[in-house]
Sequence to fold (363 residues):
Amino acid sequence: MTTTTQTPPRLEIRNLMRQFGDRTVVNGVSLSIEPGQVTCLLGPSGCGKSTTLRMIAGVDMQDSGEIYVDGKLICDTHFRIPPERRHIGLMFQDFALFPHLSVADNVAFGLMDKAQKRARVEELLEKVGLLWAIDEFPHVLSGGEQQRVALARALAPRPRIMLMDEPFSGLDNRLRDDIRDQTLALLKEEDTAVLLVTHEPEEALRMADQIALMRDGEIVQQGSPYNIYHAPVDRAAMAFFSDVNVIEGTSNGALTDTAFGQFLTPGVEQGTQVDIVIRPQHLHLDFYRGGNAPAPNPKHGQSAVGVVARSRFMGTESLVEFDMEHDGSPMKAIVPNVFLPKPGTRLWIALRRDRCFVFPSVG
Fold:
């Protein structure tokens, strides 16, 4: 009988913890990344993302936990391989190029093999479209070009792992998309395991193979972008990716009564306050006809009436804000193309029940 040996992850961290005084900044964080995989550590500012990155890089020391590269321990609380020997590349928002060195010398800065320096520099600059600037100095380049030089420099020593801390946040939106896509393609071509720290959900969804959602020093949910978005672990996780509408209710057995009809709430204790949460793009709107005209009967179930507060055209879609007639609670809907009902217009509102989530009320 033949036995197969499972290849260890390129990067694995186990139960990392970091405290500053009596404040726990990183609390039991664990994750693993395969070669060629991009994992985004996503969360609000101050949640512990950058501290986690610094511990992996070796510029900060964990209070407990272990870090492995290709199955080999590189750091715990007793043993520590120095940063320069970890085969880990770093990219930050600040490009940190040396202004007195040419582009070629910046890219070659971390290379030890003099015989291969020029060839590696030319190879990478060609890949990022900057071979023409090989003898220029950083100050003559645009922000996007400088970031591509920083990427080439980080990749030059062929790191097994790339750590990226908000590397694109200093670029304008259109340029950012181009640089992100080019960076992602090059990192995958080099078969580099990537851990990208960001506070922008759109960036994580665009770049990541896996997302680790972090809050208050802990990873609260991990998974593919699709699963993280469509199966949020709680209301806060759902709201981190988009605006949400919240319908409050009280469970009665396995059901909760709302103006939109009854919702199944199995496993919720009798009398528990619950939030039924839905994103604006999953509301269905129809004009209220008045009089004895019946409510529309879409597949989304029972409708309720809302009164338009304002509507705005957003380029490819329209945002409609309204107050529910039965209790005055505010809600909003995103509608494709142009839909701009005037303030005071009454609308039938229905929900896509397959896109509703029920969570215990946060008060």
User: Anything to note?
Assistant: The mean pLDDT is 90. The two ends are 59 Å apart (CA to CA). Helices lie at 49-57, 103-107, 114-127, 143-155, 173-189, 201-207, 225-230, 235-241. The chain is about 20% helix and 35% strand.
